[in-house]
Amino acid sequence: MSNTTQAGFTIRPLDPQKDANLVHGWVTDPKAVFWMMQDATPVDVERAYTEIAADEHHHAFLGLDDGVPVFLMETYDPAHRELAGLYEARPGDVGMHFLVAPADTPVHGFTRRVITAVMTHLFADPRTRRVVVEPDVRNTAVHALNAAVGFVPEGEMEKPEKRALLSFCTRARFEAATGAAA
Predict the structure, then answer these.
(1) 132, 124, 136: which is closest to 152 by C-alpha?
(2) Buried b (16+ CB within 10 A) or exposed e, 91-104
(3) 118 burial class (0-12, 13-18, 19+ CB within 10 angstroms)?
(4) 38/134 Cα distance (integer angstroms)
(5) I want to staple 73 with a disulfide (CB 3.0 to 4.6 A). Which of 2, 22, 50, 61 is the partner?
(6) CB contact set of 106 (below 8 Å; sequence gap of 6+)
(7) How far apart are CA 35 and CA 129, in angstroms?
(8) Strand ordering across the sheet containing 163-170
(9) Rounded to 5 degrees, what angle do the CA atoms 109, 30, 164 make?
(10) β-strand 93-100 against 130-133: which pairing, if any?
């Protein structure tokens, strides 16, 4: 998969060997507690993303702002990963996770710009019918961001690692919520 540009960001596939040290700092940051890699070593991060790179149903990307990596995005087929057997997956469902890099000085609206770019990227594929997320029920900040781009909660579910809020966003809901053409 090649680089794409969405909402001013360049999105490229994550290179586990080259990007592991950078991503390690992000996933172990205290603000990334819901990423569940707080105790990971750089080797653990490289191993995890090497496994993702080899998985036909799971993909990892970096988002760059003017050439500087600023977010991590993962996509997955929920019929085969993460949510397999936990809900009734439909053709065109795409699972998504995203993580914004920690910043010394947060920029108002930046994370919303990131999630909008992520969603635009996902809906750029005409096969994507719905984006599926399953954040921790305690992650109220991401629930608000998800709602802002059109996600509608389906309900809570028990996953092996967390209690999650299953939510869906269709192309029409995303466009109505953001005014962005998907």
Answers:
(1) 132
(2) eebbbbbbbbbeee
(3) buried
(4) 19
(5) 61
(6) none
(7) 25
(8) 4-6, 9-13, 58-65, 68-76, 93-100, 130-133, 163-170, 152-158
(9) 75
(10) parallel
3 state SS of 106 = coil
Q: What is the mean pLDDT of each run of 10 residues along the chain (182 residues)?
A: 68 95 92 84 92 94 95 95 87 96 87 94 95 93 94 92 93 91 66
The predicted structure's pLDDT at residue 35: 82
Instruction: State the maximum Cα–Cα separation within the chain, in Å, rounded to a whole number.
Output: 42
Single-letter residue type at 166:
L
Residue with tokens 């993303």: 49
Task: Spell out the SS3 assignment of 7-55.
Answer: CCEEEEECCHHHHHHHHHHHHCCHHHHHHCCCCCCHHHHHHHHHHHHCC
Query: Residue with structure tokens 């999630």?
Result: 115
Q: Which residue is associated with the tokens 């579910």? A: 157
CA distance 74 to 49: 10
What totals of helices (H) and strands (E) does the chain contain, helices first?
A: 5, 8
HSE-CB of 95 using CA atoms within 13 angstroms: 21
Q: What is the pTM of this model?
A: 0.90
